[in-house]
Design goal:
This protein has a nine-stranded mixed beta sheet with strand order 1-2-3-5-4-6-7-8-9, with helices on both faces. The protein is globular. The chain is an alpha/beta fold. It contains ten helices and nine strands. The two termini are 30 Å apart.
């Protein structure tokens, strides 16, 4: 195994292995942690498709593997699961731990352009240009078959990174994503802090705006979104209807499922995880 990756722990899981790693990130300029689930097929030496999961506000690299219940079906389908942290840790930026929705645990999966955040808060470059290539070289992952999904802030990240990097990601889905961050309080706070006050620059990281600028479907195999109707953040922060309208205008196939009684948490995510894994498997294993 490459010396670039420090294996922190590993656990046998459904015939595969759940691992937790740390490495020195050149994009971030700090150590970063992430988790990887390798299914049994990878243990046999075959290169397997991988799904990159982006977690939400206040979460970290351990949230998805411990709460989502994804490994059993990933083992059956032969999918690797990658879960990075949600922000840099230990950057020492003044105020980075003062808010739960900005700074530590809230990197919003973009590259900050404003001081003092720009030096370390470079999550888009970290994921797309560093972590995925590193893992494809160090582990039995097929770099040509990578999907992306996520929850809340991570759903925002999944949609925007998929739209910004369609050559990298072959499939995309999301749970309760922040669909139009330029039009909600979470997005205003993050974008103003990381990107500055010029609101036109925010649209490059807004899923509804990105989709609205397209004239054809970047994901003809379809995008899947699940949203709970008992989600306390739905009305003010998430705005899936705006992304739905943008997809319709662009001709992008979208399955947006609205579920009565479900909230914003991981019981909701675990309830529909199988559908998301099968959605990705249909496109990555075709």
């Amino acid at each position: 195994m490459t010396t670039q990756l420090e294996l922190l722990s590993e656990h046998a899981c459904f015939g595969g292995v759940q691992r937790f790693y740390r490495h020195a990130s050149s994009a971030i300029g700090l150590p970063m942690k992430f988790s990887v689930y390798l299914p049994p097929q990878a243990q046999a030496g075959a290169k397997v498709p991988a799904l990159l999961y982006l977690a939400g506000l206040t979460c970290n690299d351990e949230t998805f593997p411990t709460k989502a219940g994804a490994q059993r079906l990933a083992a059956e389908l032969g999918l690797a699961l990658i879960a990075p942290d949600t922000s840099p840790r230990g950057a020492g930026v003044p105020g980075e731990t003062e808010s739960w929705d900005f700074g530590v645990g809230a990197g919003f999966y973009l590259d900050a352009t404003q001081a003092p955040w720009a030096k370390h808060y470079r999550m888009e470059s970290y994921l797309t240009a560093e972590l995925l290539p590193l893992l494809a070289s160090a582990l039995p992952l097929d770099a040509k078959r990578i999907g992306i999904f996520g929850h809340s802030m991570g759903g925002h990240g999944a949609l925007t990174l998929a739209l910004r990097h369609p050559e990298l990601f072959k499939s995309v889905s999301a749970f309760a994503p922040i669909c139009a961050p330029s039009q909600c309080a979470w997005g205003h706070k993050a974008f103003r802090g990381y990107l500055g006050s010029e609101e036109t620059s925010w649209l490059a990281h807004d899923a509804a705006a990105l989709m609205g600028g397209l004239s054809s479907a970047p994901y003809p195999g379809g995008i899947l979104i699940d949203q709970g109707l008992a989600d306390k953040f739905l009305a003010e922060q998430l705005h899936p209807h705006l992304f739905e309208a943008a997809c319709a205008a662009a001709g992008q196939p979208l399955t947006l499922r609205r579920h009565a009684a479900y909230d914003h948490g991981y019981y909701f995510i675990a309830s529909f995880m199988e559908d998301h894994l099968r959605h990705h498997a249909r496109q990555l294993l075709a």
